[in-house]
Design a protein that fits this description.
- With 152 residues, the chain is an alpha/beta fold.
- The chain has a single domain, classed as Rossmann fold (3-Layer(aba) Sandwich).
- It is built from four helices and seven strands.
- It has a seven-stranded mixed beta sheet.
- Strand 4, helix 3 and strand 5 form a beta-alpha-beta unit.
- Helix 1 crosses helix 2.
- The longest helix is centred in the first third of the chain and has 12 residues.
- The two termini are 16 Å apart.
- The model has no long low-confidence stretch (mean pLDDT 93).
- Bound molecules: adenosine-5'-diphosphate and magnesium ion (MG).
- Adenosine-5'-diphosphate binds next to helix 1 and helix 2.
């Protein structure tokens, strides 16, 4: 059975806390894709993941950088592909997906053709001014097991 994790947070801090819990379970080559409208909380979630990976540098989504790399317990490859046009050129994404770190992709649907099959799909939707519904959908056995552990 495919495990699905659903949580609701009521502040950016709560979103950080949940992301930190997830980060502790991450391994090299894990790929997480983040879906959600502008302002949903994709970058906020990524900041929590970074903290959970022991990254002390501030994580943001700079205007003209598509991929940023941070050093932590594991490297974090943070991609925000919002500014790529749909089905735009391959920027060598595979080298990140298959690298020694964890990849997080904001607006992943824009590079759907380049994404690995096995990944953790996270969607964030606004359920109030300070509330967000966060849904984790695993694809593949590894992420299914991870979701199972998160539910324990
Ligand atoms: P995105 O990257 O999806 O465009 P951001 O993370 O940049 O979104 O912005 C989310 C905004 O929503 C931030 O200003 C954050 O403080 C606010 N916010 C309010 N409540 C929450 C919550 N529960 N979880 C995450 N962000 C929240
Ligand atoms: Mg963002």
């Amino acid at each position: 059975m495919m495990e699905r994790v659903e949580v609701e947070t009521h502040s950016p801090e709560e979103t950080h806390e949940f992301a930190i819990k997830l980060a502790e379970k991450l391994e090299p080559k894990d790929v997480i894709t983040l879906e959600g409208d502008l302002g949903a909380g994709k970058t906020t979630f990524t900041k929590g993941l970074a903290k959970g990976l022991g990254i002390t540098r501030n994580v943001n989504s700079p205007t003209f950088t598509i991929i940023k790399e941070y050093k932590g317990r594991l490297p974090l490859y943070h991609m925000d592909v919002y500014r790529l046009n749909e089905s735009d050129e391959d920027l060598g994404f595979d080298e990140y997906f298959e690298g020694e770190g964890v990849t997080v992709v904001e607006w992943a649907n824009l590079i759907a053709d380049y994404l690995p099959e096995e990944r953790l799909i996270i969607s964030i939707t606004r359920s109030g001014d300070h509330s967000r519904k966060i849904i984790l959908q695993p694809v593949g056995a590894r992420f299914n097991q991870l979701c199972k552990e998160l539910l324990e």
